[in-house]
User: Fold this.
Amino acid sequence: WTDVPQEVMVRVKPVSGSTCISQTDFKIPVLSVAGTAPTISGCPGSFIIGRSTSFEMEATLKYNFKGSDDDEEVAGYEWQISQGGSGWSLTTLDQNGIIRKKAQVNTDIQNDVIIRVRGISHCGRVSNWMECSITRFVQAPCPIVGAPEFLICENTETFGVLATTVPGVTGYTYHWTYPPTWSGSATGQGAVVTPDGLNGGTIVLVAKAFGLTSASCTAEIDLVPIDPLTSVIGGSFLCDDEQETYALNISPPPSSQVTWSVFPSNVATPASAAFVCSPLTLINLISRMINAGGR
Assistant:
């Protein structure tokens, strides 16, 4: 049974010297399971940690003594929890005359497991084991609900954010990270965040449970600058022998310093909110409000 052909040929020969009985050949299949192992359908691979789950697996091992599509199946199967699985339970079901063809499994909420199965032939021989390894993972709490897509420059209004949770899980904690100059406080799966008004940033969230950490969730929040309505008060042109003082009118008023840029640089003397032009034929005047990157 351990290493034989898949078929045995039997030859029935006539008695020596007889001319009345013809020679007959016929084949007998050898139902060996040596060197084989079942396939397992329904092996989940991984489960969310923090929740008990029930599922079913099915084993199949065919003899394949004629070809790859033979329907002849072994007499039964043997299932085991071979590694881990503390708190798990396994029961078996017969199906269509095949003993213990199916396994029904109930998990605990946190442990990994290796379940294995082997086939038992009609001759009582056993095949090699086939394993189903099931791991655990922490469900990432994505997306982050409530985070704005952008903030207006100087906006320091507090807003709330919320993790996306999986129903029925237990043992989860949620950990929030804010931009360094922002402030925030978390309660359970939610948090309140206060921006600094001058910087955008990324809110990062991970979930932890039973010593494992989820993939991170992020919310990218850009800062949208306030573009001031700027006008220059003064003459529309200068003669080549005159000078004039120009003032800058910004609406809304700037909350930080105002700077001037004048080209060529030697034609004017900037002041805090005005500048005096030297007599030249042409100047280009550029005003800029420096406010968290705004122009």
